[in-house]
Amino acid sequence: MTPSPSLPASLAVAQRSLGDPNHSYPLFPPLLEGCPATSTAELQYPLALDYDYTRLPRDFFNRDPYPGIRRWAELLPPLAPGLSMGEGGTPLVAAPRLADWAGFGGELYIKDESRNPTGSHKDRLNLCTVSAAVLSGAPGVTVASSGNHGAAAAAYAARAGLPCVLFITEGTEPHLVRMVSAYGAAVVPLPRPLRRVLMRELVERAGFHPVSSITPTHTGHPFGPEGYKTIAYEIYRQLGDRLPAAVFIPTAYAELLYGVWLGFKELSQVGRRGPAPQLFACEPAAGAPLRAALAQGRPVITVEEAPTAAYSIVVAANGYRGVLAVRESEGDAVAVSDAEMLAAQTALGREGLWAELSGAAGLAGLRQAARAMSFDGPVVCLMTSSGLKDQGLPAPTLPPVAPTWEAVQTTLKEVYGLSV
Fold it and tell me: Which domains does the chain have, with CATH numbers?
């Protein structure tokens, strides 16, 4: 790793159970199998981090949001020196025409996470989780993912000089395999139900540090969602020191949703910046376990998945963190179809923003919610990943054009409605 300027010291002091906040544990080692005191064989509860807020600099929430999340180091887990690649500090793009398209009569912004080093929001998480691997002295990093998480983990492991073993689903799109191979990851294709099982074997037998969940019900890494808090800090500063009324977030296991909620809670409770926004989880209708869990009042639920092109965010079981984030923010979970996400992806493209289909779920969720709801203040939709991640989807069929000006004119008018 290359040298970097010294970071402010992390104020993280402990891990705390989300199953029962009365249970806390030392900050290291990260508890990767959920809370030991509250978890059962049927349900494992994740952990979050506690911080010594009494030592937080008074001007912390007034910092310039650029460049990168390292500037928020006091409210992040300890970060390994030299690991950052400038993740974070992504643009907040005003989108009045998209507001009209969505039927929302207010102030709309797109938080463009595709500008991160590997093209998605997952870089924020992996700065924190791979830092934990480095600081724990792990011999390597491992992850079960066929999407953005795997790409980010491979990149940050490479940055740290650690081997990365990536367990992917058989038949994963070739462009992802090319991407993670460029970072030097060892790629192991398996049937999807066996990925987590054999990753756990690698963890137990070789001591590799898992940066995705190894438990039967999703707990994830306790340090990971902390990186997503910085999205909330940035939105606040980019809105001119205002909090949004609502945020719409593409959601799978809800680590992103929960992390963003933690950031807004800190802004409201520690920074005293006003009421936190409502958070809306935007899930593929092909699964939508969080919506089902909320409807049934259960912490975790498993559903049948249907086929979907939103492969980055479709899951069969929700994460408990999402239940907490939606309930505490008084938000909701929205199930969006592939057709709705495709329409949102197209609308974003017409504004110069190219999203992965999964990354357009937030805007699709707003369009659906705007039919029945209004918001008193600005609304933000997270665009989580680049359209470059959708290379496996079919390209539009292009019309044949004869090499003459007349043929070009005719094609522009008849196909594109453009008179020249």
Answer: 92-119+222-390 (3.40.50.1100)
